[in-house]
C-alpha cells in the first residue's frame, strides 16, 4: 500500500509491504526501513528497526486518517492517507480552493461567536471564544475571507472536530486602470 | 482529633487530604459533581456524596449542599483544599455556625488577606516591606497622574480584588496613565465585580518567592524555607523549586521573619503562604499577598523539611500545639515540582480534555506523583486542566534536575496530550540550569513557534502511522469481503482471504 504521510507540514510518500506476518518494509521517500513488528498491548507497537527497539503508542483518532503517535513522551500528529484517496481529495478540493472549514480543536463550550455570515475577517482575527477547563481560548481565522456560514451557537457545547464556521477566501478587487 | 473530615474539593488535593486523614486515623467524606462520579477522589474516600451538576457554581461552590452532606454524614470538620471555597469567608463562618470546624485560619485572616488593599495595610503596620506605591485605591484620573509622578516609572496598575493577571497594566510613560487607569478599572469591574485599582513601582527581573508558614491556635507560628515559583505561564505557576537559587541563609531568615510578622498581623493559626515579589537585580523583597490555605506546591516544602504540612494543618485545626519550634525546621537538599496540565504544548497550550487511554506513572527513589488520574478516566472540560504534580527531591540542585528528567521520561499519559514534553524541554534550558529565571522566563524562552519544532523521532512516527494505516486498511478489507452480499459475500472464507491476498496493494 502507498500512503501520503504528513507531519507538521512535511509530506512524505510511505510505501508499506508485509513480506511475512510480523515483518514490514516501510519506504519513506528514499529511505527503506525493515521493521520487526510486535503489538504487546492494543495500540502499543514494539518496532525493532536495525536492532533498536522503539515503543510507540499509535492511536487513530476516531478511526480516521489522523494518528496520534506517542514516542518517548513526544506526541506526533501524523496524517496518513492512501495515495489514491489523497489524489482524489486534492482534485475535489480544487473547486473550493482556500476555503476554510473551521472545526473545533477541542471539546468545550462556545462562549462567544464574534462574527456572522457575510462578515469580512482578516487572517489572525479572533472569530470565536471557546471555553474549556476554566480557560477562554481564542479561535482565529487562518485566512483573509468572508464568513460563509456559522454553525457554532453561543452557550452550546461542542466536541473536538465539530464544525464551527466556514470562511471563504476573499481577494481584493482592484479597478482596472 | 476529629471524628470525620469532609473534603470540599476534587482531584489530587482531595486525595492528598484523604491520605493525611488516613494516616491520622480519621474517616473521610468526599463530595462530587455529576461530571466527577468516576473520579479517583470519590473512590479514595470512605464515603462520597453527589452535590450537583458539573459546573462548579452548581456543585463545588454550593456550600449549602456541602454543609447538608456534612450534617447528614456526621462530619465534624471540613477541609476546603485549594481553590473553590478555600478562601471564602462566608463558608468558613457558615461552618462555624453549624458547629463544624473549618480546617483553615480564622475568618478575619481570610477576610483581611483576601483583599490586596486591606492586606497591605495590615502587613505594613507590622513592618513588612511593600513595593513602593499607593496604600489606598485611586479615586480619580488626576490622582493617578499625581501618584505616577511620585512613584516614578515604570509603574504597575493593579486591581484591588485582583488575581490571574486581570486588571493588571504596565505603564511606561506619563501619557499612558489615564488610558491604563480607565482600562484597568473596567477590566477589574468585569472580572471581579469591583473596579478599585491602585498603582505601585514595577519591579525589574521580578521573581516570585514565597514563604510557607504554619500556625496553631495557641499563638505559635513557624516559617519554612522558601519556594521559588517564578516559572509561570498565564500567571499560573508551572514549575516550583525549593529552596530558591537566589536566596542565601541571611535573606531566608529576613524573608521568614517578615512572613511571620505578616501572619501575626491577622493572628494566623493554620497553614498559609506569604508571597513576595523579589527584584532579581537588587534582591530586595516586597510583600505581594498571603494565601490563607494549603497551596498546590506545598509538597516541595514537605520534601526539604520532612514536615507533613497537610497533617499539621489538620492537627492545628483540632487544637493541637505545633510539635516543633523554628530552630527545628531543616532545609535539607532540593525539591522540584512540575505541574502536569491537560494542555497541548504544540498547539498554543489549548486544553485537551478527553479519555486517558493509558497511563504509566514514574516511581523510584525520591519521586512523588500527586494525581487524580487513572487509565480510563475521562478528564472533564469543566475544571482546571491540572492533571498531576510530579515532585522530586535531590541532595543537590543538579541531582534534583537529573532526577526530574528521569521521572518525566518515565511518565506516559496516553489518549490526551499533556505538558510533559514541555517540562522536559524546560529542564534543558541553559538559563533554568543556571538559576537565571524571573516571572517572564517562559515568555522569553519559549515562543509558541519553537514548540512546533522538528521532533527527534519523526521518521519512526511516520513508520508507525504507516503500519497503523496499513493494518487498519487490511482489517477493513478482510471484514468487508465477508460482509458483502453478492458473489464475494457468498464466497467461502479461504476464497475470500485468497482474493484479498491477490490485491496488488497487499
From TrEMBL, chain A:
<keyword id="KW-0092">Biotin</keyword>
<dbReference type="Pfam" id="PF00364">
    <property type="entry name" value="Biotin_lipoyl"/>
</dbReference>
<dbReference type="InterPro" id="IPR001882">
    <property type="entry name" value="Biotin_BS"/>
</dbReference>
<feature type="domain" description="Lipoyl-binding">
    <location>
        <begin position="91"/>
        <end position="168"/>
    </location>
</feature>
<dbReference type="InterPro" id="IPR011053">
    <property type="entry name" value="Single_hybrid_motif"/>
</dbReference>
<protein>
    <submittedName>
        <fullName>Acetyl-CoA carboxylase biotin carboxyl carrier protein subunit</fullName>
    </submittedName>
</protein>
<dbReference type="InterPro" id="IPR050709">
    <property type="entry name" value="Biotin_Carboxyl_Carrier/Decarb"/>
</dbReference>
<dbReference type="InterPro" id="IPR000089">
    <property type="entry name" value="Biotin_lipoyl"/>
</dbReference>
From TrEMBL, chain B:
<dbReference type="InterPro" id="IPR004549">
    <property type="entry name" value="Acetyl_CoA_COase_biotin_COase"/>
</dbReference>
<keyword id="KW-0092">Biotin</keyword>
<dbReference type="GO" id="GO:0016874">
    <property type="term" value="F:ligase activity"/>
</dbReference>
<dbReference type="GO" id="GO:0005524">
    <property type="term" value="F:ATP binding"/>
</dbReference>
<keyword id="KW-0547">Nucleotide-binding</keyword>
<dbReference type="Pfam" id="PF00289">
    <property type="entry name" value="Biotin_carb_N"/>
</dbReference>
<feature type="domain" description="ATP-grasp">
    <location>
        <begin position="120"/>
        <end position="318"/>
    </location>
</feature>
<dbReference type="InterPro" id="IPR005481">
    <property type="entry name" value="BC-like_N"/>
</dbReference>
<dbReference type="InterPro" id="IPR005479">
    <property type="entry name" value="CPAse_ATP-bd"/>
</dbReference>
<dbReference type="InterPro" id="IPR005482">
    <property type="entry name" value="Biotin_COase_C"/>
</dbReference>
<keyword id="KW-0460">Magnesium</keyword>
<keyword id="KW-0436">Ligase</keyword>
<dbReference type="Pfam" id="PF02786">
    <property type="entry name" value="CPSase_L_D2"/>
</dbReference>
<feature type="region of interest" description="Disordered">
    <location>
        <begin position="479"/>
        <end position="506"/>
    </location>
</feature>
<dbReference type="InterPro" id="IPR011764">
    <property type="entry name" value="Biotin_carboxylation_dom"/>
</dbReference>
<keyword id="KW-0067">ATP-binding</keyword>
<protein>
    <submittedName>
        <fullName>Acetyl-CoA carboxylase biotin carboxylase subunit</fullName>
    </submittedName>
</protein>
<dbReference type="InterPro" id="IPR016185">
    <property type="entry name" value="PreATP-grasp_dom_sf"/>
</dbReference>
<dbReference type="InterPro" id="IPR011761">
    <property type="entry name" value="ATP-grasp"/>
</dbReference>
<dbReference type="InterPro" id="IPR050856">
    <property type="entry name" value="Biotin_carboxylase_complex"/>
</dbReference>
<dbReference type="Pfam" id="PF02785">
    <property type="entry name" value="Biotin_carb_C"/>
</dbReference>
<feature type="domain" description="Biotin carboxylation">
    <location>
        <begin position="1"/>
        <end position="447"/>
    </location>
</feature>
Amino acid at each position: 500500500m502507498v500512503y501520503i504521510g504528513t507531519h507538521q507540514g512535511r509530506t512524505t510518500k510511505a510505501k508499506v509491504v508485509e513480506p511475512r506476518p510480523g515483518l514490514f518494509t516501510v519506504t519513506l521517500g528514499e529511505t527503506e526501513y525493515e521493521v520487526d513488528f510486535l503489538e504487546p498491548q492494543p495500540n502499543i507497537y514494539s518496532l525493532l528497526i536495525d536492532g533498536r527497539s522503539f515503543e510507540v503508542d499509535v492511536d487513530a483518532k476516531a478511526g480516521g486518517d489522523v494518528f496520534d503517535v506517542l514516542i518517548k513522551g513526544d506526541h506526533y500528529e501524523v496524517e496518513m492517507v492512501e495515495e489514491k484517496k489523497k489524489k482524489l481529495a486534492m482534485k475535489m478540493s480544487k473547486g473550493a480552493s482556500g476555503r476554510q472549514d473551521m472545526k473545533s480543536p477541542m471539546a468545550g463550550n462556545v462562549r462567544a461567536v464574534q462574527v456572522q455570515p457575510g462578515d469580512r475577517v482578516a487572517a489572525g482575527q479572533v472569530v470565536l471564544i471557546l471555553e474549556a477547563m476554566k480557560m477562554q481560548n481564542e479561535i482565529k481565522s487562518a485566512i483573509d475571507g468572508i464568513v460563509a456560514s456559522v454553525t457554532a451557537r453561543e452557550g452550546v457545547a461542542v466536541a473536538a472536530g465539530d464544525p464551527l464556521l466556514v470562511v471563504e477566501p476573499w481577494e481584493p478587487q482592484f479597478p482596472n486602470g | 482529633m476529629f471524628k470525620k473530615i469532609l473534603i470540599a474539593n476534587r482531584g489530587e488535593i482531595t486525595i492528598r487530604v484523604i491520605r493525611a486523614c488516613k494516616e491520622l486515623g480519621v474517616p473521610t467524606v468526599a463530595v462530587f459533581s455529576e461530571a466527577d462520579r468516576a473520579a479517583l477522589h470519590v473512590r479514595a474516600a470512605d464515603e462520597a456524596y453527589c452535590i450537583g451538576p458539573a459546573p462548579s457554581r452548581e456543585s463545588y461552590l454550593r456550600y449549602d449542599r456541602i454543609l447538608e452532606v456534612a450534617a447528614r454524614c456526621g462530619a465534624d470538620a471540613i477541609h476546603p483544599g485549594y481553590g473553590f471555597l478555600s478562601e471564602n469567608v462566608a463558608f468558613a463562618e457558615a461552618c462555624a455556625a453549624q458547629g463544624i470546624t473549618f480546617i483553615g485560619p480564622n475568618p478575619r485572616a481570610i477576610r483581611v488577606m483576601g483583599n490586596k488593599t486591606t492586606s497591605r495595610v495590615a502587613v505594613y503596620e507590622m513592618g513588612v516591606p511593600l513595593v513602593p506605591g499607593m496604600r489606598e485605591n485611586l479615586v480619580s484620573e488626576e490622582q493617578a497622574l499625581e501618584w505616577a509622578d511620585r512613584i516614578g516609572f515604570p509603574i504597575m496598575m493593579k486591581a484591588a480584588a485582583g488575581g490571574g493577571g486581570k486588571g493588571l497594566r504596565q505603564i511606561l510613560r506619563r501619557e499612558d496613565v489615564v488610558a491604563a487607569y480607565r482600562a484597568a478599572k473596567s477590566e477589574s469591574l468585569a472580572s471581579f465585580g469591583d473596579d478599585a485599582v491602585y498603582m505601585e513601582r514595577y519591579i525589574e527581573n521580578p521573581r516570585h518567592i514565597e514563604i510557607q508558614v504554619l500556625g496553631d491556635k495557641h499563638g505559635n507560628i513557624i516559617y519554612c524555607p522558601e519556594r521559588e515559583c517564578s516559572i509561570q505561564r498565564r500567571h499560573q505557576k508551572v514549575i516550583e523549586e525549593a529552596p530558591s537559587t537566589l536566596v542565601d541563609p541571611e535573606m531566608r531568615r529576613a524573608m521568614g521573619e517578615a512572613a511571620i510578622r505578616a501572619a501575626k498581623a491577622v493572628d494566623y493559626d493554620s497553614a498559609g503562604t506569604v508571597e513576595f515579589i523579589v527584584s532579581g537585580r537588587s534582591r530586595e523583597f516586597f510583600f505581594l499577598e498571603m494565601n490563607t490555605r494549603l497551596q498546590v506546591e506545598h509538597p516541595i516544602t514537605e520534601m526539604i523539611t520532612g514536615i507533613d504540612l497537610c497533617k499539621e494543618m489538620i492537627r492545628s485545626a483540632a487544637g493541637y500545639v505545633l510539635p516543633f519550634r523554628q530552630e527545628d525546621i531543616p532545609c535539607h537538599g532540593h525539591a522540584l515540582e512540575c505541574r502536569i496540565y491537560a494542555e497541548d504544548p504544540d498547539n498554543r497550550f489549548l486544553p485537551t480534555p478527553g479519555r486517558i487511554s493509558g497511563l504509566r506513572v514514574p516511581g523510584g527513589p525520591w519521586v512523588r506523583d500527586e494525581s487524580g488520574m487513572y487509565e480510563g478516566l475521562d478528564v472533564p472540560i469543566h475544571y482546571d486542566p491540572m492533571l498531576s504534580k510530579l515532585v522530586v527531591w535531590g541532595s543537590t540542585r543538579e541531582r534534583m534536575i537529573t532526577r526530574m528528567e528521569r521521572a518525566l521520561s518515565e511518565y506516559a499519559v496516553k489518549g490526551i496530550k499533556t505538558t510533559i514534553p514541555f517540562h522536559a524541554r524546560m529542564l534543558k534550558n541553559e538559563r533554568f540550569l543556571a538559576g537565571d529565571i524571573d516571572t517572564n522566563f517562559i515568555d522569553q524562552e519559549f515562543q509558541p513557534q519553537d514548540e512546533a519544532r522538528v521532533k527527534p523521532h519523526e521518521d519512526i512516527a511516520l513508520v508507525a502511522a504507516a503500519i497503523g494505516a496499513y493494518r487498519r486498511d487490511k482489517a477493513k478489507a478482510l471484514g468487508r469481503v465477508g460482509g458483502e452480499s453478492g458473489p464475494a459475500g457468498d464466497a467461502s472464507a479461504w476464497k475470500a482471504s485468497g482474493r484479498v491476498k491477490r490485491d496488488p496493494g497487499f
